[in-house]
Amino acid sequence: MNLVQLLLRSARWLPAQAALAVGKTPVRSYRELADRTSRLSTSLLKKFNLAAGDRVALAMKNCPEYYELLFACWHAGLVAVPMNAKLHARELAWILEDSGAKLCFVTPDLETAVASGISVASADYAKLLSQEQATNPAEVAPDAPAWLFYTSGTTGLPKGAVLSHRNLLFMTQAYFADIDQLAPGDTILHAAPLSHGSGLYGLPHFAAGALNVIPESGRFEPEEIYALLEHWRNVSFFAAPTMIVRLLASAAARAPANLKTIAYGGAPMYLADSLRAIELFGPRLYQLYGQGESPMTITGLAQAMHAERRALESCGIARTGVEVAVRGAQDEPLPPGETGEIVTRSDCVMAGYWRNPEASAQALRGGWLHTGDLGSLDQAGFLTLKDRSKDMIISGGSNIYPREIEEVLLRHPGVAECSVVGRPHPEWGEEVIAFVVCRRSVAPAELDALCLDNIARFKRPREYRFVEALPKNNYGKVLKTELRRLAGDVAQ
């Protein structure tokens, strides 16, 4: 069960079909991509003397070489270690050391960040493609590691989730079962990092003989995205909620006729933003809830549910072949409606954390992945996320879920973004503080009135901190640890 077969099958079936494009220009056919993958596979094994299971890191912004190297690693029986190109040099160095990567490939913009890396724009890289083709891909066990996925590290050092060939094949098949049927000529646009969700969702598109398009900028630019949506047909893409918000706010915003699906996830999507996105894009939205430890595949809210505007405050139902439950403090199952930790099990769940048996045992106790997220299930199986367990606020002995307050604040037309955290309080334990990014001037009294009209008085923020932007990590997730520090440093 080698994932490279997803590419090789399409190359045999559709050799002349375009596999990769940059902007509006096709750059690799399936035959060409398979040929380059095979030659790189030979070089990895012979030139660098790598053996099955060795790790190869990819410190690369989005580019065609990313996928030929990813598939070459699998062709050779190696383990890919994709790294976010926006990470600091020290963060990249830490991942390289922790993973024990024997080799690292870089794009030119990261040559100084990883001095030992091989640039994909160099003559050395071109020489690797002059090797003879490998005769056959490596035989690998279904549970052999394929991808070391390093968590975003919002608190502490990131951990490497070991994702197997079985995990990623299950994720690919779940895409077909739950999100979209794909065909040759369909398109996926990689506006988000290939080292993350967008790169993973290339796999079902390669399996179907579809086209993978990388923006010329190599990053997310709303105006460029709208132009590409007009050029290619049947276009899908993965987006973090912050990307959708930027698309909605862009001066170029329009309803693209060629849009097939926007799969979004990676952070909560607030109801107000969901309604605005449906208004512009129509029912072409699929919300997914997953983690690096169960990539992209825990629950989903389908396009039809967006069309009905049903359960938009939830993140949908368990994906095909996936079990989801909510557990209490003693790991006991909780009945519908009660809030606890979300747990899941399926063939998508990681084998464990790389060289971290203690963290693996804690996360996978009892045969379930413990997500660290809080939520509740209703009678129909819809999962509603509350917050990360570490983000819950306890004030006066009552549990307060920041997302509930954030949803209310975002109803104000002057509020663009907000994030709620707890600040230590000598009497109540914690008090609620809201950080708010405004579109226009907003008075605290307006926000207070909105909260008092919609939630219990004890939940309303005791202070509104108006800021120009919320601190975020390289995946667009709000850094609540930083907000808690700011709230404590300047308590009034």
Explained architecture:
- By secondary structure, the protein is an alpha/beta fold.
- The protein has two domains: 5-384, Rossmann fold (3-Layer(aba) Sandwich); 392-489, GMP Synthetase, Chain A, domain 3, CATH 3.30.300.
- The protein has helices at 5-13, 30-46, 64-75, 89-99, 123-128, 165-178, 197-207, 222-231, 241-249, 271-281, 303-307, 357-363, 402-409, 444-454, 480-489, and strands spanning 18-22, 25-29, 55-59, 79-83, 103-106, 118-119, 145-150, 160-164, 187-189, 211-214, 235-239, 259-264, 285-291, 294-301, 317-318, 323-327, 340-345, 369-377, 383-388, 393-395, 398-400, 415-425, 429-438, 463-466.
- The chain has a nine-stranded mixed beta sheet with strand order 2-1-10-9-11-12-13-14-15, with helices on both faces. A four-stranded parallel beta sheet has the order 4-3-5-6, sandwiched between helices.
- It is globular and about 70 Å long.
- The mean pLDDT is 92.
Topology:
Blueprint: H1 5-13, E1 18-22, E2 25-29, H2 30-46, E3 55-59, H3 64-75, E4 79-83, H4 89-99, E5 103-106, E6 118-119, H5 123-128, E7 145-150, E8 160-164, H6 165-178, E9 187-189, H7 197-207, E10 211-214, H8 222-231, E11 235-239, H9 241-249, E12 259-264, H10 271-281, E13 285-291, E14 294-301, H11 303-307, E15 317-318, E16 323-327, E17 340-345, H12 357-363, E18 369-377, E19 383-388, E20 393-395, E21 398-400, H13 402-409, E22 415-425, E23 429-438, H14 444-454, E24 463-466, H15 480-489
Parallel strand pairs: 1-10, 3-4, 3-5, 5-6, 9-10, 9-11, 11-12, 12-13, 23-24
Antiparallel strand pairs: 1-2, 7-8, 13-14, 14-15, 16-17, 17-18, 18-19, 20-21, 22-23
